[in-house]
């Protein structure tokens, strides 16, 4: 997720890296699904509650929901086939897809692209500087691989995950207060908790919008929006040039504000996934907590967008001021007339190199 945000804010998804962006979005979704299927396997109370939510979401699909749930679970909940199917998905199918997409993610980097870099003195879109892909990048990637493998092995040795003798087995009639999903599924849990109980009847069938919208429509729009964003920005800005230089977030206020709005939106949903724990911990009303988060979900992204955009514009203005009048040194001198002024120094060529040239066009949607 951090890597995805870094690519978004720096604009490294632009041409010619659209394919790599799409592969990254697919990896993000597959890892989330694999985590969901993994923590649904132990058959303790938390895993069973998660499976029950998955069953309810599947049933909420109009027209075909009951058929999908019956096929997935192998009958009425909990069914006889869900555990073997989740196990096959968790240890075979999704890891196989990851083994294909992760190397492809790296191969595309050398096949169609050059290394991205921030603007500095002596570099340009057509000029690459820095360490080569082999052996520098390969060595760092291998080191990260060994580090992650070591941490995972240490966690498997030291930490106890889902001790079923303490929290299981799952009994449908038992409900655990304060149940929380793993962090990567928290925003979906929060969406379910914040959605009002809306439903309507059509052609003799009840359609539950309180489940359909937060659990199916919201994540579908999230991943569709992520996948389509490079093409939408290119269409809005008309920018079809090849970009090997990264943007500073301050130089693209529109995109940066949009990204911060998305982070706030995600953060509110993630926080709402524990609204009962928050209400209990701080001794406040659960309903007041829920309504506060509902209001924050609507107003928070708007405020975040505008505040971020204005901060970016202010930072741009400071850059222009320093380029024109010099950098503050912190030295205050008194002139012959008695006035105090601060001594400035001209920007070095290296400092000027990171600035966006004034003559370079910036599309209005992202640049102002």
Automatic annotation (TrEMBL):
One of its GO terms (biological process) is respiratory electron transport chain. Keywords: Membrane, Transmembrane, Transmembrane helix. Pfam families: Cytochrom_B_N_2. Residues 348-368 are annotated as: Disordered. It catalyses: a quinol + 2 Fe(III)-[cytochrome c](out) = a quinone + 2 Fe(II)-[cytochrome c](out) + 2 H(+)(out). GO terms for molecular function: oxidoreductase activity; quinol-cytochrome-c reductase activity. The chain crosses the membrane at residues 20-41, 53-75, 87-111, 143-166, 211-232, 252-272, 284-305. Its cofactor is heme. This is Cytochrome bc1 complex cytochrome b subunit.
């Amino acid at each position: 997720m951090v890597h995805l945000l870094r690519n978004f804010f720096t604009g490294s998804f632009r041409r010619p890296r659209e394919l790599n962006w799409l592969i990254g979005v697919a990896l993000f979704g597959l890892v989330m699904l694999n985590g969901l299927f993994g923590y649904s396997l132990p058959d303790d109370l938390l895993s069973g509650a998660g499976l029950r939510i998955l069953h309810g979401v599947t049933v909420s699909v109009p027209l075909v929901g009951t058929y999908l749930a019956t096929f997935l679970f192998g009958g009425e909940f909990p069914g006889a086939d869900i555990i073997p199917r989740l196990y096959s998905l968790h240890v075979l199918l999704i890891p196989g897809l990851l083994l294909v997409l992760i190397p492809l993610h790296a191969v595309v980097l050398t096949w169609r692209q050059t290394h991205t870099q921030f603007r500095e003195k002596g570099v340009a879109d057509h000029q690459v500087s820095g360490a080569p892909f082999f052996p520098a990048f390969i060595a760092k990637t291998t080191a990260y691989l060994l580090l992650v493998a070591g941490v995972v092995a240490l966690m498997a040795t030291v930490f106890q995950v889902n001790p079923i003798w303490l929290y299981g087995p799952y009994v449908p009639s038992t409900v655990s207060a304060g149940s929380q999903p793993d962090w990567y599924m928290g925003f979906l849990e929060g969406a379910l908790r914040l959605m009002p109980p809306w439903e309507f009847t059509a052609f003799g069938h009840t359609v539950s919008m309180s489940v359909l919208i937060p659990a199916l429509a919201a994540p579908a729009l999230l991943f569709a929006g992520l996948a389509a964003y490079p093409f939408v920005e290119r269409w809005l800005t008309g920018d079809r040039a090849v970009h090997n230089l990264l943007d500073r977030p301050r130089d693209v206020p529109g995109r940066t504000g949009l990204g911060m709005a998305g982070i706030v939106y995600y953060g509110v949903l993630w926080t709402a996934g524990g609204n009962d724990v928050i209400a209990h911990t701080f001794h406040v009303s659960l309903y007041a907590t829920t309504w506060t988060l509902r209001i924050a979900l609507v107003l928070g992204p708007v405020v975040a967008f505008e505040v971020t955009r204005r901060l970016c514009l202010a930072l741009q203005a400071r850059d222009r001021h320093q380029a024109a009048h010099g950098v503050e040194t912190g030295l205050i001198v008194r002139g012959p007339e008695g006035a105090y002024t601060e001594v400035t120094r001209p920007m070095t060529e290296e400092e000027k190199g990171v600035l966006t040239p004034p003559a370079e066009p910036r599309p209005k949607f992202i640049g102002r």
